[in-house]
Automatic annotation (TrEMBL):
InterPro entries: Mucin_vWF_Thrombospondin_sf, Ser_inhib-like_sf, TIL_dom, VWF/SSPO/ZAN-like_Cys-rich_dom, VWF_dom, VWF_type-D. PANTHER family: EXTRACELLULAR MATRIX GLYCOPROTEIN RELATED, HEMOLECTIN, ISOFORM A. Keywords: Disulfide bond, Glycoprotein, Repeat. Signal peptide: none annotated. GO terms for molecular function: extracellular matrix structural constituent. It comes from the Eukaryota. SMART domains: C8, VWC_out, VWD. GO terms for cellular component: extracellular matrix; extracellular space. Residues 1-171, 357-527, 809-978 form the VWFD domain. This is VWFD domain-containing protein.
Amino acid sequence: CVAWGQSHYQTFDGTNYDFHGLCNYNLVQDCVDNSFAVQTRSIPCTGLVSCPRNVTIFIGESLKVKFEPPQLVRVNGALVTVPYSGNGVSIGSHGNHLYFSCGLGFRVKWDGQSSVYVTVEKTKMNKLCGLCGSYDNQPNNDFTTSTSTVVTSAATFGNSWKANEYGESCPDVADRSSACQPNSSLVATAQQVCSKIYSDAFKACHPLVAAEDYYHWCLEDVCSCNASNSSVCACNALTEYSRKCVRLGARNLSWRTPDFCPKQCSSGMIFNECASMCPLTCTRRASNSSQCNSDCYDGCECPPNKVLHDSSCIDVASCPCVHNKLNYMPGAVLKQDCNNCTCKDGLWECTKKTCDSTCSSLRGGNFITFDKLRYKFHGNCEYYLAQDLDKKFTVTIKIYPCGLHDLSTCTESLKIKLSNDTFILKKNQTVMVNNQLVTLPYFTEAVTVKSATASLISFHAKIGLELTWNGDSSTYVTVSSAFYDKTRGLCGIFNGNQNDDYTTLEDNVESSPIQFANTWKVDSACQDVDPSVTAPDPCQVSLQRKVPAENMCSIIKNGDAFTPCHSVVNPDYYYDNCLSAVCSCSNQDCLCPALAEYARECSIKGMLLDWRNASNCIKQCPVGQVYNECGSSCDRTCAEIASDLDVCSNKCTAGCSCPSGTVLNNNNTCVIPAECPCSHQGITYEPGSRRNSTCSSCLCSGGRWICSDIDCDNLCPNNQVYSNCTTLCDPTCENFDHECVASSVCTEGCKCPAGLVLNEDTKTCVNRSACPCHDGGKHYLPGEVIQRDCNNCTCIGKKWSCTKKDCAGICSATGDPHYATYDGLRYTFSGKCSYVLSKPCNNNNFEITVENIPCGVSGSTCTKAVTISIGNMTIHLMRGRLITIDGVEISLPKIQNNVTILKAGLFVIVKSSLGFSVMWDGALRVYVRLSPDYKGLMCGLCGNFDGNGGNDLKSRNNMLESRVDDFANSWKVDESCSDVVEDINRDTCKINPHRYDWAHLKCSIINGPLFKSCHAKVDSNAFYKSCLQDACGCDYGGDCDCLCTAIAAYAQECNQKGVHVSWRSENLCPVQCTHGTEYSPCGKICSTTEQSFPDKDICGEYQCVEGCHCPEDHYFYN
């Protein structure tokens, strides 16, 4: 609907009329739901054919947005700057035009003068009223008054929609006769001026828009205008005609001259009737999105070979580069790790050296691999942390459950093997070399071990290995670039590819970090961590600790000491770790080490922080321990007693230790030795406990087992043989390729004959080549084959041998939205604009964009539309609308220009022969599948698809950003949208605390038993947290949409890993199937229709799609 000039209107259903009212009027109003209203008022003026208008937009009863000349914007009375984003709305500008959008299905554009454009979605049909009519495709009832009466008089209709301010009285107006009276001298002048609309200058418009109405309006304007230059009076009508035909596709119009309706531009710009909505800038060198191609405005833009920067046109060579929101001039050099990045033509050009890399094992079971993949693992054993394939070094870490309710994980010791030397690092800076206790510093030609600080041990080997440990739970292993692609273990493979970081001892790539970590046990007798059980959030278990933990850890996000680092190290990960540490802490000494982890990362990035004074982190001893300037170095532990080690020699050591006569147990508590527990095969036994083995009975006393023989008449099963000396090191399929660290004490029992190993599943003795392999917690016999992505893996002698095909990449945007890149990086970005989701970096063969709109006053946004541009073809998928190709609605299935579009289950699938496809659920879930041919060639919110999620936050100007908002803002389609500055303290459940209990109850299904079969394949914690934030934040209605999307996003990940969970019910996110179809969490798309698609690959790519499908042996017809 359009209102323009002094009195001209065009309704949604195409009725053109004149109304000369000067009051405030309801231009558009939602008369059914009362969700919004758009009002307009002409500002009195003299001597002009058209006076400017004010535009006022009401959202419910709580929000009022007002546009006033010249481009002033007020929100609830307060003047705001544009672009503006807040209160669930977005306001941007292009030239003199202001644009308003929100999530309620309408948009408003104002040209800063008299023209107002309101665009509504089809969902608003039969709901609207006002000067724009009813929007019901029936023009004959457009003059429906506010009393629901259809009239013929435009004045009577218009007067009825007055919206007077409180206390205001504004007179009605009457219908006017034509200003162009017969025999008037004005008529000839008007006809001469307005006839330009029929000239060749508008030739491109004539087939698109009938000129008669605009010619009539032009005559009226000129006849009623008292300007000295009559051509000025024609400009409004001709401008509106030009805008209408441009909206319908006309381009390259040039009807203005220096003497006829001229437009002046400054800053080196030129005027264009169709200036790009996505102007070329220093960071945007090409525009291929459909919005850029199909939508434009009449205004000023830069000439060819120039780009826009700070409202001026400049040469590309003069463009600055951006990093961390700062501009750097051409030639500037920044350092990223060991590489230098130089600013050239507005882009960063970086060297590509392989840098040294660090792996971290942090408090609370948090691990960061060499390739910067983050995961949690709460183990209770000794594990291979990092190992060189050439066996130049091996680093193992011994960890155990600790903290309140054993919800945290602590480090007991570290072991480093170099050639023939073994170094063991224990708490309190105790170091053993080849089983001999040494004092620090310790030097050889190849190794240096020293106290870096009072609590930090530093280990350095000349081969290119460094290790630091704070004696508690923060361990850092750094390897030089010489070990690129040569490491294995919990630290992953150092090769820049996060996708293979979960490579197991059997050369299998697990999807679950727990399954992966279990395989790297040093002692195969240790009990595996159950991957199907989701580790509880310590702050959920100890709710009374949650608020104090948030208050203490908030210094990371809000404290002056840490905020300078936010631009180089995102604090979210370390803040979450801090919360877990404090909530699971059994004493008061967990905050400072957690803060120290963030401070260390900041210092690596060159940001030195003075934080200890600000956080009151003064060194104190743990509860129960005492500080001595000269304490004993024989700080024995229950574990040392159990191991019968006797290597302690008293030396004067400053630090904390247990009081005399007590030792440190596994819970870091000082106890008398008599209270020490014992352990056997990973199970802990309290003092005084007994256990019976095959031929003996053992008593736990003072941390040691005291065993006595008993009669043993049991026969050995299968082909095992009885022996007087069996040990935990006897070879089995589980341990034959592990170093044995178990006790070698002999006991009577059954064992395998020499040369054979025990298959513990069948209790039979087999050759090593007959041992099974493992994947996802399941056992596979030699010769069995599993599929991992697009590769087949065959079990051969306990090792998986896999084909080496490059597989397709999958990127997703779900919910708020939460993004997962092709390379597995997960992040959340609540941008309220259109963004490039994915495109090739170096060409415009295709581009996929997403439009996000507010769906909650707390700042939550949701995906409203997906646009796919392929060459000159544009496919538009918008919620609540039919799919369009180049603006034309289509029915499905559809095949056009080597693109297949079909409906499958809950999804619409668009597949292109260019090697990509898009799957959209019509609401809040978008998945992009990409051919491996595009590896390393992609740009956008989905990352670069090079296998390394650690470098996915690369901005449009080719710089790796640490903040998600800096990265994502650079991929805006429309520069007029405001940049989003992520509120790092934003917690939708705190903003809407009344929604938390409901959200927690519903979202807990993800961590619950219903999805237990998937927990070993897909970590559920991240999806639970996303669900919680979406369910709390989605408060524009559609609560269940946001909740169901979050759960469905996890179910989809499970489907991709081969675990199909039927989770929907009548009471939870039901799906109603019709026409004989049946719901399935995993249905094949090519069994649901008899349509034969030329692209046969689509059937293979989408063999598992949730939704309604025909029963087996049935096809969907007609």
